[in-house]
Amino acid sequence: MEHQRWPRLRVTDWADTRDTLQLWTQIVGKVRMAHAPAVNHWWHVTLYPSARGLTTSAIPHGDGSFEIEFDFLDQVLRVATSDGRSRTVALEPKTVARFYQETMLALAELGIETVIHPVPNEVDPAIPFAEDEQHKSYDGEAARLFWRQLLQAERVMSRFRWEFLGKTSPVHFFWGAMDLAHTRFSGRGAPQHPGGAPNCPPSVMHEAYSHELASFGFWPGGGEEGAFYAYAYPEPDGYSSYPVRPEAAHYDHDIREFLLPYEAVASAPDPDAALTEFLRSTYEAAAALAKWDRAALER
């Protein structure tokens, strides 16, 4: 049945693993950021759901490339180069400090000398990776279920992405907040973002939110099993009271986002339809209220 494809994973059952895994993904994401050519809105730093986990995709290096993938089937981090060499780091209970050391060693052994800012972003407290002995939990089955949640979310969000002709982001994984995200742009500029994310320079937000947008995504918070979200920047008048669907969706005034609990989607008679309804109606809230040129932007 349709709903059986949507894995169930209570946030409280894997919170410690989630927090450790987020920091591990930050290390790998920062490696991509150190080597990949810059792209607008920081799209060059993200990870992507893959057939086995989360991947950086191919990263240029010298006259070849390399790729780093969290393989949640074999439970290894795999660093592979375009000349056929590879190294692995076991995904198992270990400290962030040890994971950082092993990952940087794997890169060095492959001749990929890398310097990153070795402190996490968008978390508080921000313990330097090499000193973090606190975060060390890892439940491989929980990580695998989370990855399968991402696969389902990406599948529906990618179909939704096709409906928009204007500037639009990939469906990609931001390691700062550990969310799978997709963003649409109206084509107009936006007022400078005030910043405010913990341990994240305001300049990062200035680049991310330089243009008017509507953003959508999924993250392992905001509901018993995570939540889908939607927000607009700048937020147009009337956005918070717009009648979005399905019925389980609501506007959270603290974080200024619409939320739809993952469990409401997974238990719906047609999960794909429920999530698509949320994506379309929250986009409509942003585009209609801010008077986007919808005739030019929509397929």
Structural overview:
The chain has seven helices and twelve strands. The chain has 299 residues and is an alpha+beta fold. The chain folds into two domains: 11-131; 140-297, no CATH class. The strands form two sheets. Strands 1, 2, 3, 4, 5 and 6 form a six-stranded antiparallel beta sheet that branches. Strand 11 and strand 12 (257-261) form a beta hairpin. The chain starts with 10 loop residues before the first helix and ends with a helix. The model has no long low-confidence stretch (mean pLDDT 97).
Tally of separate domains: 2
**Low-confidence sequence ranges:** none
Q: N- to C-terminal separation?
A: 31 Å
Q: Estimate the mean pLDDT confidence.
A: 97
Number of strands: 12
- Using the CA coordinates, give the radius of gyration: 19 Å
Q: What structural class results from the helix and strand content?
A: alpha+beta
Number of helices: 7
Helix fraction bin: 25-40%
Order of helices and strands: HEEEEEEHHEEHEEEEHHH
Strand portion, in percent? Answer: 15-25%
What general outline do the C-alpha atoms trace? globular
- Give the biggest beta sheet: 6 strands, antiparallel
What labels describe this entry?
Ava_C0101 and related proteins; DUF5996; 22% strand; alpha+beta; six-stranded antiparallel sheet
